[in-house]
Design goal:
five-stranded antiparallel sheet, mainly beta, 2 helices, about 400 residues
């Protein structure tokens, strides 16, 4: 009996070690026909695995689709991932500590009459701070939203409106945010998820300690005259005080003096094409998805006055790169077009030393002549059998990385 117990224990430990040491992709996905459940899929992302690129698990969200959109931008060290179904305004919390057995922990909707969350950021105290687009209603005539703090299970803690009497003529639709911990500041952007709401061109500065809105800053136009429209992702620079602002109209700006009474914003660059989507900063490189030119490019931003392109991966015309996220080493980047292009996932290798990008040709469907993994025409473990589109997608985090992050 003792030998049997030892065998079972060793088997359990080997399975647990596989789950923690193996690399996975967590893909927040939806039925392209919008008739079936939203779901979280788990793909094998270990390049040494014979199942590389294959689906190994999935879990459905009960009820009708809510249109899967953003997840957290990277996998939290605790193993729980937040994801939103933007159109329904629901937030899902998934337990992904055992990747081969994902589960939905809970879901929740409006908080303090704030509706339609978009971006989630983890605070040092373990709480979540999120942007919500609307307050008290839906649609173009609704009040602008704000920032809401809550715990991981959706229990409301505090909120603050993004409406600014000094910017009454500006469209306020909180989109994304970044924490500037050294300066007790938050920087958020405004862009309406529903285009009928109108154009936006503002970023906002808040005090982190009490969620007080301090300033609304209007982005200046660039050489084209339209780069300032639709601010997207704010990303903290390596100096811990400058915030880069990307816009969907291909602009890049730097917000400086964030802790001062008069923060200033400076135009830096116009990316090529008509639309630039989710970006990343890895060291002194800016990785930009360029949806309208079907590419992902890396730029050296070590000199803000002379930003230069280092490398680029170009896809076929069916791809409209929208979502990108890096692994914990910053050496692999997952790319997908969301619901806007072909339903396909690509892995791009990145060299943090040189800035070189290279498509991973081995990440593909079994027997396919094309790189990339399709979300269409597959039978998913939870029973779904139609075409699906991916959106928020993140790499799993190793046990060692989780412990390092927690220190």
């Amino acid at each position: 009996m003792r030998n049997l117990c030892c065998f079972v224990l060793l088997l359990f430990l080997s399975i647990a070690g596989y789950a923690q040491g193996h690399s996975y992709l967590f893909v927040w996905a939806g039925d392209d026909a919008k008739k079936s459940n939203d779901f979280m899929a788990v793909l094998d992302a270990d390049a040494a695995s014979p199942h590389y690129g294959q689906t190994v698990a999935s879990v459905a969200v009960p009820g009708p689709t809510g249109t899967p959109h953003h997840t957290e931008l990277e996998m939290p060290d605790g193993g729980f991932l937040l994801a939103n179904a933007f159109e329904s305004g629901r937030t899902m919390l998934f337990d992904l500590r055992q990747p081969l057995h994902p589960s939905l922990v809970t879901s929740f909707g409006d908080l303090d009459s704030y509706m339609h969350p978009h971006t989630y950021v983890r605070l040092p105290n373990g709480h979540i701070l999120a942007t919500f687009q609307y307050h008290g209603g839906h649609g173009p005539t609704a009040d602008g939203g704000g920032l809401v703090e809550f715990d991981e299970r959706g229990h409301f803690i505090r909120s603050s409106s993004a409406l600014d009497p000094a910017a009454k003529s500006e469209l306020i639709r909180p989109y994304s945010l970044v924490i500037v911990p050294a300066l007790d500041r938050i920087v958020s952007t405004n862009t309406a998820m529903h285009e009928k709401d109108g154009d936006s061109r503002t970023v906002q500065v808040w005090r982190l300690s009490d969620l007080k809105l301090l300033r609304t800053v209007i982005l200046p136009p660039g050489p084209r005259g339209s780069e300032q429209k639709f601010p997207g992702e704010p990303i903290l620079a390596a100096d811990g005080k400058t915030v880069f602002i990307h816009t969907f109209n291909c602009g890049l700006y730097a917000l400086e003096g964030v802790a001062s009474d008069q923060p200033t914003v400076r135009y830096l660059k116009t990316f090529d094409g008509e639309q630039a989507d989710v970006p990343l900063r890895i060291g002194h490189y800016w990785i930009q998805s360029l949806s309208s030119v079907h590419a992902v490019a890396a730029y050296d931003i070590s000199d803000h006055g002379h930003i230069r392109e280092i490398s680029r991966v170009t896809f076929d015309d069916k791809q409209k790169p929208h979502w990108i996220s890096a692994d914990e080493d910053g050496r692999r980047i997952i790319v997908n077009s969301g619901e806007y292009g072909e339903h396909r996932l690509f892995l791009v290798n990145f060299d943090p030393q040189t800035g070189a990008l290279k498509l991973d040709e081995h990440f593909r469907d079994g027997g396919s002549e094309r790189p990339g993994v399709s979300m269409d025409g597959k039978s998913w473990p939870h029973g779904f059998q139609r075409d699906a589109y991916p959106h928020g997608t993140v790499f799993s985090r190793s046990e060692a990385a989780a412990k390092s992050t927690a220190k």
